[in-house]
Design brief:
The chain is α+β, with helices and mostly antiparallel strands. The protein has 8 helices and 7 strands. Helix 1 packs across helix 2 (25-40) and helix 1 packs parallel to helix 4 (108-123).
Length: 295
């Protein structure tokens, strides 16, 4: 998640133009930033293999529906992942075929205005206004990525409006997208914080902790990569519950360690490594007990 304030005023103005029914403006601003991060990595020139373009990666028909001028491009075939699809010639393979002077998707301000209008419609869509705030956001993000029809079909198939039941019926790309956006949403909103007594650190903590003299704990090729203690040790009473800072997938864990057990790292204890998005992980160690549930 990359800090970026280049388009703050544009995003603020776009968000203020719409009603958000239960969501604060600050939360939506952070959501839009997280979407831009995931969609284009803040590049207004970005074009996907499928032909989505601009900061919020709008497809031609979607952009036109949101009021943007987009040329009628010829169609071609393009390789996207493991599939070969029909796509406009304005795609990542032939970006030179994009008519940028006449395609408003490449205008940062117009793109953000249209993208915000689109996600507003999805969040206010009665089909996706189900459950709590987080569930609504997940459904809307999935629809933004995979299309409303596909998400509605998954809801019918699952006979549920709960994300946990619907997600397995959607493409893995969409599941990853929702997770990645939510992770960065926490980053941009400042809600992802580690709180201990009177100390608060925003998360991720990289570059916020400066240690002049580090103590080398364990293997230098381990998760810290440097061999130095890069985390935060928070004192607690045995039995205190530790919750992850954000949703994610468990990619490694040890739940049968004993004190001094070399197989788990000396004094390291039980641990859980959670992947939140492609380049964002959190690691919890020195745990007396680990409980994992499928999914």
């Amino acid at each position: 998640c990359t800090p970026n304030n280049d388009y703050d005023s544009v995003i603020d103005d776009a968000v203020k133009k719409h009603g958000w029914e239960g969501f604060s403006s600050n939360k939506i601003v952070a959501l839009v930033k997280a979407m831009i991060q995931q969609e284009s990595r803040w590049s207004k020139e970005a074009v996907s293999c499928a032909g989505a373009a601009g900061l919020m990666q709008l497809m031609p028909d979607t952009a036109r529906g949101m009021g943007l001028d987009v040329p009628q491009y010829e169609t071609t075939t393009a390789k996207c992942g493991d599939s070969t699809i029909s796509a406009p010639v304005c795609n990542s393979y032939t970006p030179d075929r994009c008519s940028k002077p006449g395609d408003e998707r490449f205008d940062a301000g117009r793109n953000i205005q249209a993208g915000v209008k689109y996600i507003n419609g999805l969040l206010n869509d009665g089909n996706f206004k189900k459950g709590d705030e987080l569930n609504r956001i997940k459904l809307a993000l999935a629809a933004y990525n995979a299309g409303s029809g596909r998400v509605k079909d998954a809801m019918k198939q699952a006979k549920s409006d709960k994300w946990e039941s619907i997600a397995p019926l959607l493409p893995q790309e969409t599941q990853n997208y929702v997770l990645a956006v939510l992770s960065c949403h926490l980053f941009y909103s400042g809600d992802a914080s580690l709180v201990y007594t009177n100390a608060i650190l925003s998360w991720p903590t990289k570059n916020q902790i400066k240690v002049k003299d580090g103590y080398c704990y364990g293997d230098p090729t381990s998760y810290s990569r440097t061999g130095y203690h890069m985390g935060i040790d928070a004192y607690g009473v045995k039995g205190d519950e530790v919750k992850p800072v954000a949703e994610g997938t468990i990619v490694d864990a040890k739940d049968n360690c004993r004190e001094g057990d070399s197989g788990c790292g000396k004094w390291y204890g039980n641990f859980v490594l959670i992947k939140h998005s492609e380049n964002l992980y959190s690691l919890y160690a020195h745990l007396s007990k680990v409980e994992k549930k499928s999914g």
